[in-house]
């Protein structure tokens, strides 16, 4: 996934305007970059594993009349970069092709690289051997590829540039004789383009200088860290992961739900029913849908104009929420994704697949992935020196900027309405409970607001941080500012889709998997949290030390809502709480931490239950 952009001028590019396009493209990622420019009758390609602004300063292609580029958030592909080149055909692509393996099996040309985007160029290479119609070429690509395809395809020996997209994540605008394109309209608005058009229904085919010369390619690779470490199964490592069955744990559990005696602040009455059950108020009780239709009516826009923002993680709830918003509510959304470095490729593929299938634009805001992971690493190292279950939330604090950038996207798009797909049953009192904070049974929101509640939380956490001074590191501002945007910033034009639609797991899973071929994980049976790179690790810690995870609290809420029997819930958690080796290994590899050392520390933490 990346930001793609370009300028095609009659004489030479406008440096000031081009640099603004470059700057905005970095919102989508700074992990690697690439430039294409026409110079002396030759199309020159520069690829680098550093940010686009640095590459631009090095190349300075300002005397060229054609410059195209990308700023990339590394996703599929371990080492290869864009632009992707085959047989003097060149492409820059925003999105992920989720069915690349199936396409390669049907092509006669051989695969050369690891990057998924290569399949676009391979289709073009094979097609153009015997055909000349560029419009039909675009149809071939879009009909074969699943996932988001927003692409600039360069055909130098035909003198053509093809711009096309299947989800609208590509815009073109004009300034006098100059043509500009970018992944988002906002970039073109910033340079005062006119006649801006979203490319979705049909390709834009532009004439560019013809060249018989071979493409000149220069790669600059200096990165020492691997942002997408290759998974290598290690049986001895997997054996380190401990797992006790429910029978082996032998924990007293609520007779109504399945919460165990190790749940913070749990109490049982004389019937063995816990206080969480006795104080539970049903949350999955939607208001009439007609109310939501009335609420969104003033936001609807005529024709094909976008009218709402859908925060989109690629998880099952936001994906199903998008399905409802498009097909039931009849809105025309743009999705927004915040990638903070712990979104797995599985999550990214599901984002691409849903947006591609539904023809929905996806705006990505990517953090500095390297820096975010360094922040997590520092906090995890501090945690390992003084393990504390109440401090596990420090490892996921970096994702709270999700709430901050919603406001930025509202400004950029001019769209105020944002519709969230948050599961009302994802309530986990224990995460703050282990910090010594009693559950507020009156709270009816997934995220707790309120100044006093936050001050109490930060006071408790500060005391825990003193036990391991390593928490006082350079990541602290990132943590605190993210939590401010989540908990204190006033939210306007903000509605939850599941306040009006019942959340039902079977219907949700059936719709996503059967209708959209939504991808599930290979290391767990659950569809929850599978795109989250942190979930496998923190749930392993909770289960190893306390004998339960967030799956226990979620299934307990389903029991209270009448969606699940207690017997079925126990069967489910027996499976769902098993260690996710692949997810845990990916997490520790991305942080550059030794799997054996970390797991041995976790396994040695004193248990909250008696071991037999």
TrEMBL record:
**CDD domains assigned to the protein according to its UniProt record, in alphabetical order:** Gn_AT_II
> What Enzyme Commission number(s) appear in the record?
2.6.1.16
Among Pfam families, the record links this protein to: GATase_7
* Sorted UniProt keywords: Glutamine amidotransferase, Transferase
Q: Which InterPro entries match?
A: GATase_2_dom (IPR017932), Ntn_hydrolases_N (IPR029055), Rossmann-like_a/b/a_fold (IPR014729)
Which reactions fall under this protein's catalytic activity? Answer: D-fructose 6-phosphate + L-glutamine = D-glucosamine 6-phosphate + L-glutamate
Q: Which Gene3D superfamilies match?
A: Glutamine Phosphoribosylpyrophosphate, subunit 1, domain 1 (3.60.20.10), HUPs (3.40.50.620)
Protein's UniProt keywords contain Transferase: yes
Write down what this protein is called. glutamine--fructose-6-phosphate transaminase (isomerizing)
Say which species the protein is native to: Arcobacter aquimarinus
